[in-house]
Write a structure and sequence with these properties.
This protein is an alpha/beta fold and about 120 residues long. It is built from five helices and four strands; from the N terminus they run E-H-E-H-H-H-E-H-E. It is globular and about 45 Å long.
Length: about 120
């Protein structure tokens, strides 16, 4: 059986904190031929304790909680982002880190969940 690749564009924190950037990334992914876009559903305070400093790599010296604040996708963005993906003709789905995230994504009829 021949398999067809399913191409997913990871949006993650690439929106850099701006809903318009996230929407533009969806459009760019669709134009580039992606089948889907993926977001990450989490709340920064659920992911890291204050005061934890990253010790190595490109974020060395930065507080982990700050990094999560910079890269998270606010919950209020998910509905408009899913609509933007449908408008662009591609699928939107998300990673879920905790049961609360799964419950939230189910309210959006998220068709695929990636368990992080």
């Amino acid at each position: 059986m021949k398999r067809t690749p399913f191409i997913v564009a990871e949006i993650g924190g690439n929106h850099r904190g701006y809903l318009e950037n996230a929407t533009n990334l969806i459009t760019a992914a669709a134009r580039a031929g992606a089948d889907a876009v993926k977001f990450q559903c989490f709340e920064p305070q659920q992911m890291a304790e204050p005061g934890v400093i990253i010790e190595s790599g490109p974020w060395a010296g930065h507080e982990l909680l700050d990094l999560y604040h910079q890269t998270h996708t606010p919950r209020e963005w998910f509905y408009p982002l899913f609509v933007a993906a449908r408008t662009a003709g591609i699928l939107a789905f998300s990673s879920a880190f905790l049961r609360d995230h799964v419950d939230f994504l189910e309210t959006l009829n998220c068709p695929i969940l990636k368990i992080a």
